[in-house]
Amino acid sequence: MNRADEDEYRQFVAARLEPLRRTAYLLCRNWHTADDLVSITIGKLYRHWRRVRAADNVDAYARGVLTHSWLDERRRPWRREKAVDELPERVDLNLPDPSMADRAMLLESLGQLPARRRAVIVLRFYCDLSVEETAQILGITTGTVKSQTARGLEALRLLLARPTTTGGDMS
């Protein structure tokens, strides 16, 4: 890669790093894994930068690489271990802000969706992509995107309508 290409690549990464990281978090629900996914994605983009920058929509290309990297990582047996965010000696600080509780419940419910369905929901509603853009990124038909979106939203509605249990694990 020549110097001009590398400078262009660095500018792209600097501008898109946080949005890619947030998207990765929504897919995997773990900040450490999200950072790993972004690192993998950035490496793949660097190796193929000439092809990437020639794409019609570089952001969509990058999101596609990120989503495929996440799906690939989920297939690896050693990635099936569950990381926990809560430490055993956690202090309860009264009731959380309702908006934070709602957000946590939504993220927990999102995490219960199958990987492909979760990817469709994140790309459609967090990344605000069209049905066609989502289909292109995931390499599926628009009909599959529509059906996975409908099923994913219905599953989220059912999960969010369930009464919460204290101390129980919903995963």
State the end-to-end CA separation.
Answer: 45 Å
Shape: globular
Number of helices: 8
CATH class of the largest domain: Mainly Alpha
SSE order, one letter for each helix or strand: HHHHHHHH
Strand content: under 5%
Structural class: mainly alpha
The beta-strand count equals: 0
In angstroms, what is the radius of gyration?
18 Å
Our count of domains comes out at 2
Integer average pLDDT: 84
CATH topology of the largest domain: Rna Polymerase Sigma Factor, Chain: A
Largest sheet: none
What is the name of the CATH architecture of the largest domain?
A: Orthogonal Bundle
User: Helical proportion?
Assistant: over 70%
Give the key terms.
8 helices, 171 residues, Arc Repressor Mutant, subunit A, Rna Polymerase Sigma Factor, Chain: A, globular, disordered C terminus, 2 domains, single chain, mainly alpha
Structural overview:
This protein has helices at residues 3-28, 31-47, 49-53, 58-75, 98-111, 115-126, 131-138, 142-161. The protein is globular, with a radius of gyration of 18 Å. The protein is built from 8 helices and no strands. It is mainly α. The relative contact order is 0.10.
Topology:
Blueprint: H1 3-28, H2 31-47, H3 49-53, H4 58-75, H5 98-111, H6 115-126, H7 131-138, H8 142-161
What would a concise description of this structure say?
With 171 residues, this protein is an all-alpha fold. It is 70% helix and 0% strand. Helix 1 crosses helix 4, helix 4 packs antiparallel against helix 6 and helix 7 crosses helix 8.
